[in-house]
Design goal:
The strands form 2 sheets. The chain has an 8-stranded parallel barrel, surrounded by 6 helices. Strands 1-2 form a two-stranded antiparallel ribbon. It starts with a helix and ends in a 50-residue tail after the last helix. It has 18 helices and 10 strands. The protein has 2 domains: 352 residues, Radical SAM ThiC family, central domain (TIM Barrel), CATH 3.20.20.540; 89 residues, no CATH class. Helix 4 packs parallel to helix 14, helix 15 runs antiparallel to helix 16 and helix 16 runs antiparallel to helix 17. The protein is of the alpha/beta class. Strand 4, helix 5 and strand 5 form a beta-alpha-beta unit. One of its GO terms (biological process) is thiamine diphosphate biosynthetic process. This is Phosphomethylpyrimidine synthase. Belongs to the ThiC family. It holds the Pfam family ThiC_Rad_SAM.
C-alpha cells in the first residue's frame, strides 16, 4: 500500500513530491522531508490526483493562497465552475477548495480533478447533507461513505468539522453572530437534534484510516470561528482550538498530514495572539486562516478588510491564507470576484514573505522598482502581479504604442514626473547615477515569489514537466 507523505518522511524517504516541492521552493529536499516528518508542513497530494503539480504548506515555506469556488442551489453550472477553476489557477491560487452545494457535485469534482494542477480541497459534510436531505438526518455511516468516495476520486485535502463538541455549544450563547461556520452550524444542529456527541468526532479514527489509505490531508475546521469582532478570541473559539490540538496528534498517530483552519473576524491587535496560540496548542501544525477580517463595516470590500488581517497573519507565521472576495457576506463570487480576491491575497502573502525575510522574496519588488524607474513599461507589465490589469489601467489614459516608451504616465504628466526630474538631474551630473542590478534568474525565491504568479494559459498537461491552467469553457468549444 502506498504510504502518506508523512509516513515516508518519518521513515527518512524523500518522495518525488518532496523533490518537486524543493525545486519550487528553492531549498534542499531534506528540508522539505524534515518539515513534513515533524508535522510542521503538509504536501496535499492524493495518490489518485494524477494532474497534480505538488506544493507545500508550512510556516517555513512561502505563504500560500487558497481560492474557494463552487456552485450553489441557485447559481452556477459545470461550465461556470470550470471557468472559476481556470481563473483561480490563472491568477495564482496555490490550492482550490470546491465548496459546491448545488447540482452535479460528483461531475464537477471529477472534472476539476482531471484538470487542476493545484491541490483540490472539499468539505464532504456538504455533500452528505445533500444526500441526507436535512442535517438531522445525517448518520456516521453516510459521512464515512461520502468521505471515502471523495478520497477515491482524488481529493487532496478535506475540511473535517470534528472539533466542535456538545459541551462547546453553551459557550456560544453570549455571541453576537452565533455559529457562522456552515459546517459548524450543521453539526451543532445534529447534536441538538440527537442529544449525542459530534458524529465526526465519534468516527474520527475511521476517518483518519481512510485518509491514510489515500493520503488525504486533513484540514481541521474551525466550526466556532468568530463571525464578528465582538466574538473574536472568546471561550468557544479557544475551547474548540484545544480539541483541534488533540485531534492533530491523533491524526499524526495514523500517519495523516494535518493543517488547522483559523478565524474569521479578529481585530488587528489580537491577530498575533491567535497565530501564537494555534502554534502552541497544535504543536506547530500549519495554520490556514480565513482573512482574518479586521473590521465588520465594509460589505462589498471585504477582500480589503480581510487582506489587511491576512498580511499580518502571514507575518506572524500563518502558512496559508484563504482568500475572501468582494462578494463575501453578499453573494456567490463570479469570475471577476475570484480575480479580485486572489489579487488581494497574493499581495498579502507576498507582503508577509517580504516582512519575514524569505530568501529572494523582495527581489521581485526590486526588479519591478528598477523597471519603473527606467520607464520600461513593457517590463513593468511583465513583472506585475496582474500584468493584464496593469497594462489595462496604463492604456486607459495613455493608449497606443508611442506611450510604451514614454518617460511619464498620466498621473503627473511630462513636466511634473518626479522620476523623470530625478533622472535628468543625475544625467546632468548633479547626483550620482543609479544602477539596476536585480537578476531574477539568479534569485533564490520560491516559485510563488517570482513573476508571473498566474497568467497560465493552455490545456492542462499530464506530466509534472507540462503544467498549466485548465482550459476555459470557451477554449473547449
Amino acid at each position: 500500500m502506498p504510504r502518506t507523505q508523512r509516513q515516508a518522511a518519518r521513515d527518512g524517504t524523500i518522495t518525488p513530491e518532496m523533490e518537486r516541492v524543493a525545486e519550487r521552493e528553492g531549498c534542499e529536499p531534506d528540508r522539505v522531508r524534515e518539515a513534513v516528518a515533524t508535522g510542521r508542513a503538509v504536501i496535499p497530494a492524493n495518490h489518485a490526483h494524477t494532474a497534480l503539480d505538488p506544493m507545500i504548506i508550512g510556516e517555513a515555506f512561502a505563504t500560500k493562497v487558497n481560492a474557494n469556488i463552487g456552485n450553489s442551489e441557485t447559481t452556477s453550472d459545470i461550465e461556470a465552475e470550470r471557468e472559476k477553476l481556470h481563473t483561480a489557477v490563472h491568477y495564482g491560487a496555490d490550492t482550490v477548495m470546491d465548496l459546491g452545494t448545488g447540482a452535479d457535485l460528483d461531475t464537477i469534482r471529477e472534472d476539476h480533478l482531471d484538470r487542476s494542477p493545484v491541490p483540490l480541497g472539499t468539505v464532504p459534510l456538504y455533500e452528505a447533507v445533500k444526500q441526507a436531505g436535512d442535517p438531522a438526518a445525517l448518520t456516521p455511516e453516510l459521512l464515512l461513505s461520502v468521505i471515502e468516495k471523495q478520497a477515491r476520486q482524488g481529493v487532496d485535502y478535506m475540511t473535517i468539522h470534528a472539533g466542535i463538541l456538545a459541551e462547546h455549544l453553551p459557550l456560544t450563547e453570549g455571541r453576537k453572530t452565533g455559529i457562522v461556520s456552515r459546517g459548524g452550524s450543521i453539526v451543532a444542529k445534529w447534536m441538538e437534534a440527537h442529544g449525542e456527541q459530534n458524529p465526526l468526532f465519534s468516527v474520527y479514527d475511521d476517518i483518519c484510516e481512510l485518509f491514510a489509505t489515500h493520503d488525504v490531508t486533513i484540514s481541521l475546521g474551525d466550526s466556532l470561528r468568530p463571525g464578528c469582532l465582538a466574538d473574536a478570541c472568546d471561550e468557544a473559539q479557544y475551547a474548540e482550538l484545544d480539541t483541534l490540538g488533540e485531534l492533530t496528534r491523533r491524526a499524526w498517530d495514523h500517519g495523516v498530514q494535518v493543517m488547522i483552519e483559523g478565524p474569521g473576524h479578529v481585530p488587528m491587535d489580537r491577530i498575533a495572539e491567535n497565530v501564537e496560540r494555534q502554534r502552541r496548542v497544535c504543536d506547530g501544525a500549519p495554520f490556514y486562516v480565513l482573512g482574518p477580517l479586521v473590521t465588520d463595516v465594509a460589505p462589498g470590500y471585504d477582500h480589503i478588510t480581510s487582506a489587511i488581517g491576512a498580511a499580518m497573519a502571514a507575518q506572524e507565521g500563518a502558512a496559508m491564507l484563504c482568500y475572501v472576495t468582494p462578494k463575501e457576506h453578499l453573494g456567490l463570487p463570479d469570475r471577476e470576484d475570484v480575480r479580485e480576491g486572489l489579487a488581494a491575497y497574493r499581495i498579502a502573502a507576498h507582503a508577509g514573505d517580504v516582512a519575514n525575510g524569505r530568501p529572494g522574496a523582495r527581489d521581485w519588488d526590486d526588479a519591478l522598482s528598477e523597471a519603473r524607474y527606467a520607464f520600461d513599461w513593457t517590463e513593468q507589465f511583465a513583472l506585475a502581479l496582474d500584468p493584464e490589469r496593469a497594462r489595462e489601467y496604463h492604456d486607459q489614459t495613455l493608449p497606443g504604442d508611442n506611450y510604451t516608451d514614454a518617460r511619464f504616465c498620466s498621473m503627473c504628466g511630462v513636466e511634473f514626473c518626479s522620476m523623470r526630474i530625478d533622472q535628468d538631474a543625475r544625467e546632468d551630473g548633479d547626483l550620482a547615477a543609479l544602477t539596476a542590478d536585480t537578476d531574477l534568474d539568479d534569485s533564490p525565491a520560491s516559485a510563488v515569489n517570482r513573476p508571473p504568479v498566474g497568467t497560465h494559459d493552455g490545456e492542462l498537461g499530464r506530466t509534472a514537466d507540462d503544467r498549466s491552467a485548465p482550459d476555459t469553457p470557451a477554449a473547449n468549444e
